[in-house]
Amino acid sequence: MFYKTFYPSPIGNLTLGSDGDNLVGLWIEGQKYYEDTVDEEMIHRDDVPVFDETREWLDRYFNGEEPEISALPMAPIGGEFRQEVWKILCDIPYGEVTTYGEIARKIAAMKGKDSMSAQAVGGAVGHNPISIIIPCHRVVGTNGSLTGYAGGIDLKIWLLEHEGVDTSRFFVPKKGTAL
């Protein structure tokens, strides 16, 4: 059984999802892939303990603190490759960014391969079901492009600037498949 509740944030309403013990989703209203990793209907319930923990984490985050990702019990739903990518996302420090290519190199090294597709990594990053907490907004294109945020480029920029990232060194592409 899955549950959901809502959290009003500075970037809009967020939906929190849980399996009863762990956080399985955090979706921004209107984002791509909204609630897509949970195959069954989620029952609205506000009193799930992990929701209280997540609300506290989000309060701290939006107040400019740097809460630890490991403080929350999380169980994002996805295949092995996506899980590997999401684990790497959790290692990106607050206020810093990495590239899809760098994540691809890390995955390739883990698998003993010469290379890995940055586009495949982009797909996994884009399907991250626990936005903000698993910080997919901290991933940018190798060329400095701000592509690939399911919540939209404006929210990606807001989150990066909230964390103190100088976004003037990045650009929003005029066209592309990952806008």
Mean of pLDDT: 92
Identify the CATH architecture of the largest domain.
Orthogonal Bundle
- The helix-strand sequence is EEEEHHEHHEH
Structural class: alpha/beta
Let me know the largest β-sheet. Answer: 4 strands, mixed
**CATH evolutionary superfamily of the largest domain:** Winged helix-like DNA-binding domain superfamily/Winged helix DNA-binding domain
Q: What coarse outline follows from CA principal-axis ratios?
A: globular
Number of strands: 6
* Estimated helix fraction: 25-40%
CATH class of the largest domain: Mainly Alpha
Uncertain runs? none
Count the DSSP helices.
5
Numbering strands along the chain, what is their spatial order in the largest sheet? Answer: 3-2-1-4
Instruction: Return Rg in Å.
Output: 16 Å
Question: How many discrete domains?
Answer: 2
CATH third-tier fold name of the largest domain: Arc Repressor Mutant, subunit A
Assess the beta-strand content as a share of residues. Answer: 15-25%
**Span between termini:** 34 Å
